[in-house]
Write a structure and sequence with these properties.
14 helices; 296 residues; mainly alpha; Na+/H+ antiporter like fold
Length: 296
């Protein structure tokens, strides 16, 4: 629990700053998305050694999405949840906050070296899968899909971190001068504190009246049932090494901000999406330490 306290304090500082001063989260997020985050990704991936751990991360990521959708489908059937809300649940469970919050927790518990694995999980198991399956989920929710496949694909593949990920893979063909490496290293150190401060400023639970049952189901699946299932599957198949631990932590993240925003734009259940987003952020400071403790 001690490792996560700095993250919680930075998060609370951002929330307090907004309450008593101003909400400057938008320019901070832009600064991160267009400058710090791309540099951070290029720096981490450039020096990453490709081995079997990468395939473990991708495998767990795909399992997380598949199991998440399955659990959501079962819950929707058992509790007779309407198609629109069930589709929002699928987006919230299928795509987590694997970058901003995910990187912060991974760094806190497993150090800087583990962030390269977290980046792969975020880009392959979250962003790529979202570009493929989010339009399908939207189409199931209602016939007149308000967000096209091309719109989502364009949004993801023009998203600065995704562009940076592609450039980072290509950058392995060249050698960076020492001054460039030093520059990227110093910039990367600012990522987590600025991101968590901005997330704290953006935190809101929103209107959750009449949605507590669906929000509870969503977060139980996303933040407890899913990572615990993946842990027991991993115990049966793999040794529980760093790659598995990072992947399970990423799978346990609360719902993804970008995914929720796109889903709301597509006409899915706004109260459910925003409620799961806000409450999930707070719960992560309890559930993630518990899962880390379980994995040892």
């Amino acid at each position: 629990m001690f490792e996560v306290l700095p993250i919680l304090l930075i998060f609370l500082s951002g929330y307090i700053f907004r309450r008593f001063k101003a909400d400057i989260s938008d320019p901070l997020v832009d600064f991160v998305l267009y400058f710090i985050f791309p540099i951070f990704i290029i720096y981490k991936i450039h020096f990453l050694v490709f081995d079997s751990s990468i395939f473990k991360v991708i495998f767990i990521g795909f399992c997380a999405f598949t199991l998440g959708i399955f659990f959501t489908f079962v819950a929707a059937k058992i509790f007779n949840i309407n198609k629109n809300s069930a589709s929002m649940m699928a987006i919230s469970v299928g795509f987590g906050n694997t970058s901003f919050l995910g990187f912060a927790f991974v760094q806190a518990y497993y150090g800087e070296d583990a962030l390269s694995l977290a980046i792969f999980y975020d880009q392959i198991a979250t962003m790529v899968l979202m570009s493929i399956f989010a339009p399908i989920i939207f189409a199931i929710a209602h016939k007149s899909n308000k967000v096209s496949t091309s719109h989502i694909v364009k949004a993801i593949f023009t998203f600065p971190p995704t562009v940076a990920f592609i450039l980072a893979i290509l950058s392995k063909l060249i050698v960076f001068p020492d001054i460039v490496v030093s520059f990227m290293s110093q910039v990367s150190l600012t990522l987590v504190p600025i991101v968590i401060f901005a997330v704290g400023m953006k935190f809101t639970i929103g209107t959750i009246k009449g949605k507590m049952r669906d929000i509870t189901l969503t977060l139980l699946i996303k933040m407890l049932l899913l990572p615990l299932s993946l842990y027991f599957i991993s115990v049966a198949i793999f040794d529980i090494d760093l790659a598995i631990k990072v992947s399970i932590i990423e799978s346990a993240m609360p719902p993804m901000v970008l995914g929720t925003i796109i889903a709301i734009r597509a006409g899915l259940d706004e109260k459910l999406g925003l409620g799961s987003l806000g409450i999930g952020m707070i719960l992560s400071f309890v559930t993630i330490p518990a899962i880390v403790y379980l994995m040892g």
